[in-house]
Design a protein that fits this description.
Layout: H1 2-11, H2 23-48, H3 61-66, H4 71-94, H5 101-130, H6 135-146, H7 150-154, H8 164-185, H9 190-211, H10 226-241, H11 252-267, H12 274-293, H13 296-301, H14 304-311, H15 313-331, H16 340-366, H17 375-390, H18 393-396
Helix pairs in contact: 2-4, 2-14, 2-15, 2-16, 4-8, 4-10, 5-6, 5-15, 8-10, 9-10, 10-12, 11-12, 15-16
GO cellular component, one term: membrane
GO biological process, one term: lipopolysaccharide biosynthetic process
Pfam families: Acyl_transf_3
């Protein structure tokens, strides 16, 4: 059993289609998904508990920290901007292999659609049969989910799986990314390119502020979030041009990473004043940059267990909220003192291991096979391998593998 446990991170490692695995990115994905999990479980607990807490939630520091999970969504947007920019930017700046648009779009479809369609269909059926909802009423929502148009059509989150509003924005960015990268990385002068990027980010934010794109319904589209992806462009530029050989790590960046993250948590406001929004953008950039340049923070995000959790964040993101809704039905009456922090910790100690364990299982069966770009050819031949990687019974029963 111990041998099996040690193999878990390797089994959960992502397939990268031959490209270099950037360890920090999977670690950053962990940093993005964890606060989302905490916030969504905290919200379900707060709505369902009958505990009379010693401190009102509006004045509770732990409730405030738990509510900061949406910052993880913005970090996901920066990561997407970074990852999608890399191959196009490398082709332009380093004369590497040109990216074929047909391959790029087909890869997005074959990689992301199968698990997405599977889980949206599962949750739709659960709502209809277990939730006893009207099929014809929810069918349009299901179809809008499948086509990533729910926010555009209904101007609100999906009742089937609310967090998918961010995936709709990601898809919109995937469509635009090749053209945006062409615009940015056609500029050969590094300084001019980065100045242009910075001014476009600021220009977008000014337009968003004036037109109030930070509020619904524009906030459910790329219009309210494009600047986060462009931060990823800037970081991809730095990664390719300034860190192409070796990244010099310094302990000072451990402090800046912690300071940036702590300040992000503290200063973010739903009032969306322009100064606050500028600070959020600057701090997201600083945090991302410092993770690459720091010593101890970099070691943390590059830890194989942290990376394995971050690598399966897509599955976690798709299933975590319905699991939170289910689990809180059984845990809402757990009452240990009247302190919010103690009770939330108990809820998280139940929820997090369950969602991570199930996500690992579902990742191996319903996501990882589709990371292979030739999955349609090899899925059935490789299925026994994936199944075998999940079964620890051979260790429990004392059997030896050949």
């Amino acid at each position: 059993m111990l041998s099996f446990i040690k193999l878990i991170p390797e089994k959960l490692s992502r397939v990268t289609s031959g490209r270099k695995l950037i360890k920090e990115i999977d670690g950053l994905r962990f940093m993005a998904i964890l606060p989302v999990l905490i916030q969504h479980m905290a919200e379900r607990f707060e709505r369902n508990t009958t505990i009379n807490f010693t401190t009102p939630l509006s004045e509770n520091g732990f409730a405030f920290l738990a509510s900061r999970g949406f910052l993880g969504v913005y970090l996901f947007f920066v990561i997407s901007g970074f990852i999608l920019a890399l191959p196009f930017a490398s082709s332009r700046l380093n004369n590497t292999k040109k990216v074929k648009l047909s391959d790029y779009y087909w890869r997005r479809v074959t990689r992301l659609e199968p698990p997405y369609i599977f889980w949206i269909t599962i949750f739709f059926l659960v709502i209809i049969f277990y939730g006893q909802r009207n099929f014809l009423e929810y069918l349009p929502h299901y179809l809008a989910n499948l086509t990533y148009t729910h926010g555009l059509i209904y101007k609100e989150w999906s009742p089937i799986n609310p967090p998918t509003w961010t995936l709709e924005i990601e898809i919109q960015f995937y469509i635009l990314a090749p053209f945006l990268t062409h615009l940015f990385f056609s500029i050969k002068n590094k300084t001019l390119r980065r100045v242009c990027n910075l001014f476009i980010i600021l220009g977008l934010m000014v337009a968003q502020q004036y037109l109030k794109f930070y509020a619904n319904p524009a906030n459910l589209s790329i219009l309210g979030h494009l600047h986060y992806f462009l931060i990823g462009f800037m970081l991809a530029d730095i990664y390719l041009c300034d860190w192409s050989t070796k990244i010099k790590k310094q302990t000072i960046y451990d402090f800046t990473a912690v300071l940036a993250l702590g300040t992000l948590i503290y200063i973010f406001s739903w009032e969306f004043n322009f100064t606050n929004r500028i600070l959020v953008v600057a701090l997201l950039f600083t945090f991302f940059y410092s993770v690459f340049k720091g010593n101890y923070v970099n070691r943390f995000v590059s830890n194989k267990w942290i990376m394995s959790i971050g690598g399966m964040c897509y599955t976690i993101y798709l299933i975590h909220l319905p699991l939170a809704e289910l689990i809180v039905v059984f845990t809402k009456n757990i009452h240990i003192t009247n302190y919010y922090s103690v009770n939330l910790l108990v809820q998280l100690l139940i929820f997090l291991p369950i969602v991570l364990a199930l996500s690992a299982l579902f990742f191996l069966f319903f996501e990882k096979p589709f990371m292979n770009k030739d999955w349609s050819k090899s899925l059935f031949s490789n299925f026994p391998k994936y199944a075998n990687s999940l079964v620890p019974f051979k260790y429990v029963l004392g059997r030896k593998t050949k």
